[in-house]
Amino acid sequence: MPVVEIAVWTPSEAFEDDKSIINPALDFLKNTDGCKAVYSGFAEEENTYFLFLVWETLQHHQNLIAHPEYPHVTHVVPTIGAGGIKMNHVEFNKDFIPAVSAPSTEILEMALKEGKTKGELYTLLGLISSSIDEGNIPEYNPATFGPTVEDSTKFYLTAGWKSSAFHLKAVEEPERVAAILKLREIVDYKLVHVNFTKR
Questions:
Q1: Distance (Å, rounded) from C-alpha 156 to C-alpha 107?
Q2: Which InterPro entries match (predicted)?
Q3: What is the spatial distance between Cα 199 and Cα 59, in angstroms, rounded to a whole number?
Q4: Letter string b/e over residues 64-84, b meaning 16 or more CB atoms within 10 A of that residue's CB
Q5: Residue 15 dihedral angles phi and psi, to the nearest 5°
Q6: What are phi and psi of 34, to 5 degrees?
């Protein structure tokens, strides 16, 4: 199963002024050994940029990190603003490509609360996903989720929607509201929506 690198950062002023300055970095990464796909886009809810890199293996990314001129060799540095870059690697439970190929991708970053377990989380996420799947919503691409390599108590979920507004309306159904309230008992989470472009 491929490993997905999720990199997130606040854009630099230069990046905000000229969105094309990311292009050399995206081209470089796309052509790096072991990189299978590059997806990128801005969050709707906040001023952050998301980069999803699909690596054949974690080792392929580690080989890039070991380059003596990393990270400058990637051409990403001029686009990074205050706070630097946050990076995690995730092995999703199934193919996440349908989610990032949708017009709006839900990204849910979760951290287990004290005393809660991965099993509890996965059971609940499975129920939420099944509820939406069984609702036969054609404007929805199934959710996929997985833990980060860096921290086994942190997880990412992605799901595809025709729009963020449609997503927020869809989860207003009573059974989904109850499940989301239960989710809040298990994890602390942050939700954003990104319109991804494949390089």
A1: 7
A2: Dimeric_a/b-barrel (IPR011008)
A3: 22
A4: beeeeeeeeebbbeebbbeee
A5: -70, -40
A6: 90, -10
> What are the phi and psi torsion angles at 8 (to 5°)?
-135, 135
Least confident stretch, 75-89, 103-117, 162-176: 162-176
User: Tens digits of per-residue pLDDT, 28-42?
Assistant: 999 999 999 999 999
Alpha helix stretches (DSSP H) within the chain: 13-17, 23-30, 58-65, 97-100, 118-134, 164-170, 174-186
Q: What's the rounded Cα separation, in Å, for the pair 26 and 89?
A: 18
The two three-digit tokens of residue 9, written as one number? 């950062």
Q: pLDDT, tens digit, for every residue of 19-78?
A: 999 999 999 999 999 999 999 999 999 999 999 999 999 999 999 999 999 999 999 999
* Helices and strands, number each (H, E), in the chain: 7, 9
Q: Is the dihedral of CA 105, 13, 10, 24 positive or negative?
A: positive
